[in-house]
Write a structure and sequence with these properties.
Layout (H helix, E strand, L loop, with lengths): L3 E6 L13 H24 L4 E4 L11 H12 L5 E4 L10 H10 L4 E3 L6 E4 L2 E6 L13 H4 L7 E7 L1 E2 L11 E2 L3 H4 L4 E5 L5 E4 L2 E3 L15 E7 L7 E6 L4 E9 L5 H8 L10 E12 H14 L5 E12 L12 H15 L5 H22 L1
Parallel strand pairs: 1-2, 2-3, 3-4, 6-7, 7-10, 8-9, 10-12, 15-16, 16-17
Antiparallel strand pairs: 1-13, 5-6, 11-12, 13-14
Helix pairs in contact: 1-2, 6-7, 8-9
Length: 377
Amino acid sequence: MAGFRFIHSSDLHLGRRFGNFPEGIRGRLVEARHAAIDSLSAAARNNGAGHVLIAGDLFDTETPSDRVWRQALAAMAAAEGIQWWIIPGNHDSSSAETLWDLARAQAPVNVHVCDVAEPVEIAPGAVLLPSPVPSRSPGRDATEWMVGCRTPEGALRIGLAHGGIVTFGSEDDGAETITPNRATDARLDYLALGDWHGFMRVGERTLYSGSPERDRFKHLGRGICLAVTLPGPGAEPEVTEIVTGRFDWQDISLELTPKHAAAEALENILPGKGAARRDTLVRIRASGWIRLPERMELARAAQKAEPEFGYLELTDAELKTECAPEDLDDIASGGALRMAAEALYKDAEDDAKGAEDRAVAVAALRRLYSYVREETQ
């Protein structure tokens, strides 16, 4: 055949609740995962691909709500001219018989659940070798069967699998591993993998597409899918990254010293401008050390900027506070507050105390300083 073109994606995790995020962004993240189906459809149409391969974890659990799986099927059905090929992953494994029986029974004609390890001709001259995950932690390489699988001579062999490779392990640290040379020993023209939520090229024929929508700060930027063209049997695949994600995830380091104007330094590294910030999730990891007044200004600057973003988190566990005697004057010139501040300052500077006790004293002094300054302004 002259060639075959398809979209490779994985790990949509439909139904994920994002309970570790504030309510304001949580609903938008949930909706963006469902919208990824339309993004994949658009990627297929714009790149002349008639097939979308989902390499596992279409759903976040083995028991998604009826609303989640039925709306997913409806969105795929609306993608006219596009065939969807889906394998169960470790989050929605084949052991979820109720889920996949229902999905198969109600699937539109263009949606194909591949929950059996057997070759399927998905187009003339193109054979899919699916490796569904049988259980959450199968403890074996589910792609082994591909090695001995026979397909018609001259047909493209496309593997579809979910799991970690031995060089980095599973996304969820599961026992299952896929040998990195599977594409070679199984004579595959392409091995489409899922489980790792970021893009990774294992070899010229073995790739992780990553999730079409990022879901944590582990994988940054916007989610993507892969547009893959197989010119012919044995030919090197042509792979193009297609941006599909709505949300831009950014993890930024901010190293500070007392010489820095902390608030200004924060403002200078904040990503995006204007309306683009609404779809940006950013984590600022502050480190180094600054004075008490600067620490308060840093917190204020983060609080001021936060509403512009979809989500903004300032992590300052690695940021130390340098205390100075003159900072105590900003708390109180006398009385009980001054006595408390001086006691905390003494403990913070006492080398005879353990590091943990000094850190507790600094934290208490910082909180006292912030409380008093907020009350007086």
